[in-house]
Amino acid sequence: MDKKKKPNFLMVGLGSALITLGLLVVFFVISDSLKASSQTCTNSACFVSAANSCADATLTSEEPIGTVKHSTSGCYYLKTIVKANSSEVPEVKSLIEGKSLMCKYDPGNFNMNWISYISEDIEYCQGPLKEAIGELIVFSESAAK
Amino acid sequence: MKRRVKKEMIFVLICIFILSIGFVSAITCPAGTRQEFAGGSCIPIVGESGKAAGTGTSASTSSSAATASTSATGPSVSFPSNTPTQAEVNAAKAEADRLYGEQQTAWDRYSKTSTELFWLLDTESEEFETFSDKQFAFEDTLFSEEEKDNSITHQWSEADLEIVHDWVDCRNSDPHPFDYCWSIGGYDNTPEYQSCLEASEEWQDACSLKSDLANAQLDQWHAKTTVAALDAKAAEYNKRIAELQKQGKGDKWEEDEEPEEQNQPQQAAVPPFQSIVNFDNNFQPLDMHLSQPQIDMLGEIPPARIHDLFHSAANNAVQNNPNLQNLANANLQNSPLANRLGAENPDAASKLQKGVSLPPPSLGNFINQEVNKLFNT
Questions:
Q1: Which end of chain B is more exposed for a tag (fewer CB within 10 A), N or C?
Q2: Is B172 on the interface with A (CB under 8 A)?
Q3: Would you say residue B270 has pLDDT above 70?
């Protein structure tokens, strides 16, 4: 008669950790392959072209105000202030960093002003970044002088 | 043997499940947010005070001026017979601040539903034509000093009422800032408080504590009643939105596929606001709160008046919005973003235009108040 062995919890634990790790690797591989279908642009011409055809594309640009990420998918445009300029004042930094606004447009009719300007034509957009810009505009006159 | 293997298998599966959920939750939500439910979107974690981000702290300088209610019950505010402790006063102030935060988020909820309903309404319908007027009347009631006067002071003595009337008159007459009016009126100048002060010098600290507690209680009451009024109106709007959606008038934003982006802003639709002020001084319809005759009249206002109008609205907004107070005190001359916005919007007319077309709750509201005040004088 076989002597009953006690379950080896160390082995069981290690086994479960390895299986979890494997599952996560599969998860990230699938996730990356899905993301790969989105075009990563390095200039605005590429991005605008993709946007006008309602394709998926991203463009990350370094601007005087900081790092701005532009994304488009299905004729929706998303602008995110990824990181404010390092010299930005703390009050503004906390107001805008990580915030986004989203705008809808018709195929072939992407509005270039959304990329070229901060506040132009964002009346039709929606999101926390739009509201932050709306608040900051009140004080922008004195800042400009 | 089989049983043991089964047990081990179950143990392994449980481990995998717990580790996976924990790990995926941890990596999918950015700091300051949590997952609404497994696999759901990330939502901001509300702090223990319940404040919306950046709503500021001082209920006594903000909510008192900005809130009122249509309720007729009035607050249970009176000078307590026993002197409160400083800890009790602090707790009351903290509660007032928390409620003020709730008021801000209630305003956001109300604002979102009113915008959504506006977007859904048939532009040819009578409901659409009267919607803006009704909405503005409701908001005006929320901020009405007369309503506040009627609803909160009925418990007071005649002498106290007279003092408060002076305060209300002060608030209604430009250009007194709120703090100035508070210094000449409100609880601190009521005969009850004065007699408390005069009774004995030793009592002065106690009188101050009583006054502070009464003011904090009043702020709490203002905030609570305002939240109730806003939520009731939001519920009314939501009911109407549901009716319209049943009739097949779906939101255009929901008809299309949404992008799979993190930090995705709210999906609520935005009504197509048009500028009321053009750079060439041609005024075009349509702002939510202005009637067509008012918009026509705006075209006759000289640029200098537009400048005054904008600054009056902006000052009004700053006094009542802690977010803007924070920005007003910042050193924006060194801000790359503020400078860029200044370059894009070089004059008061363009900022007035943006203020109306990019309406964060307070600024858009205050600009509309100032414009309407202009037509009433």
A1: C
A2: no
A3: no
Question: Residue B43 above 50 pLDDT?
Answer: no
- Give yes or no for residue B32 having a pLDDT over 80: no
Which of B319, B276, B247, B371 is closest to B61 using CA atoms? Answer: B319
Residues B161-219: tens digit of each pLDDT: 454 555 445 444 443 333 334 444 445 555 556 666 665 555 566 667 776 776 777 67
Q: Torsion over CA of B348, B353, B354 and B358, rounded to 10 degrees? A: 140
Whether B329 maps to a domain, the answer reads yes
Domain that holds residue B304: 292-376
Same domain, B216 and B317: no
pLDDT in tens, A65-104: 999 999 988 888 889 999 999 999 998 999 899 888 888 8
| Mean pLDDT (chain B, rounded) | 59
Query: What residues in B contact A131, CB-CB < 8 Å?
Result: 358, 360
Q: Which of B 290-319 lie inside 8 A of A, CB atoms? A: 314, 317-318
If we measure between CA atoms, which residue out of A138, A69, A75 comes closest to residue B327? A138
- Does residue B24 sit in the same domain as residue B90? no
Alpha carbons B141 and B232: distance in angstroms, whole number: 14
Based on the domain organization, do B230 and B142 belong to the same domain?
A: yes
User: Any CB–CB contact under 8 A between B42 and chain A?
Assistant: no
Which residues of chain B are within 8 Å of residue A76 when distances are taken between CB atoms?
Answer: 256, 258-259
Strands (E), chain B: 33-35, 42-44
Does B337 contact A7 at a Cβ distance shorter than 8 Å? Answer: no
Helices B361-376/B348-357 angle, 10° precision: 120
Q: Which residue of A has its CA nearest to B360?
A: A131
- Residues in chain A closer than 8 A to B344 (CB atoms): 117-120
Q: Examine the domain organization and report whether B39 and B75 are in the same domain.
A: no
Does some domain include residue B124? yes
B343 pLDDT band, cuts 50/70/90, is confident
Domain regions of chain A by residue span: 39-144
Task: List chain A residues with CB under 8 Å of B10.
Answer: none
Claim to verify: residue B118 and residue B174 sit in the same structural domain: yes
Among chain A residues, the shortest Cα distance to B343 is held by A144
